[in-house]
Amino acid sequence: MLQSHVIDVDGAFVGAAVRLDKGYRFIATDMKLDDLDGSIWPTLADVQRLARRVYLGGRLATSRTH
User: Fold this and answer.
1) Where are the alpha helices (H) located in 1-66, listed in sequence order?
2) How far apart (Å, rounded) are the C-alpha atoms in residues 39 and 24?
3) Residue 29: CA atoms inside 13 Å, Cβ hemisphere, count?
4) Whose CA is closest to 33, among 8, 2, 63?
5) Of 16, 21, 35, 61, which has the fewest Cβ atoms less than 10 A away?
6) What values do phi and psi take at 65, rounded to 5?
7) 10-19, 33-42, 54-63: which range is least confident on average?
8) For residue 44, is pLDDT > 80?
9) Within 10 Å of residue 65's Cβ, how many Cβ atoms?
10) How many Å apart are CA 21 and CA 14, to the nearest integer?
11) Is residue 3 classed as helix, strand or coil in its secondary structure?
12) Residue 42 CB contacts under 8 Å (≥ 6 apart), including other chains
């Protein structure tokens, strides 16, 4: 069974991170994070940090794997 983690920003559910062999795939549930949907990140902390940045109006980092 795949392990998943809820991703929230200040209490707002914005997506989930699914553990894969090569990192974490982000599944967006909020339109603000559509650009991150399906992207793969090396650590859960990376997913959480980037989701927060984008959700709060920041820019998407360019070093993602898709």
Assistant:
1) 44-55
2) 8
3) 11
4) 8
5) 21
6) -110, 135
7) 54-63
8) yes
9) 10
10) 23
11) coil
12) 23, 24
Task: Write down the pLDDT at residue 60.
Answer: 58
User: Is residue 15 situated within a structural domain?
Assistant: yes
- 8 with 49: CB under 8 angstroms? no
Q: How many domains would you assign to the chain?
A: 1
Kindly report the pTM of this predicted structure.
0.82
Token pair, residue 15, equals 């997506």
- Residue 60 belongs to some domain of the structure: no
Q: What is d(CA 61, CA 4) in angstroms, rounded to the nearest whole number?
A: 22
Residue 65 lies in a domain: no
Domain of residue 22 covers 4-55
Closest CA to 19 of 41, 35, 4, 40: 4
Asked whether residue 13 is assigned to any structural domain, the reply reads yes
Would you state the structure tokens that stand for residue 62, as one six-digit string? 């360019």
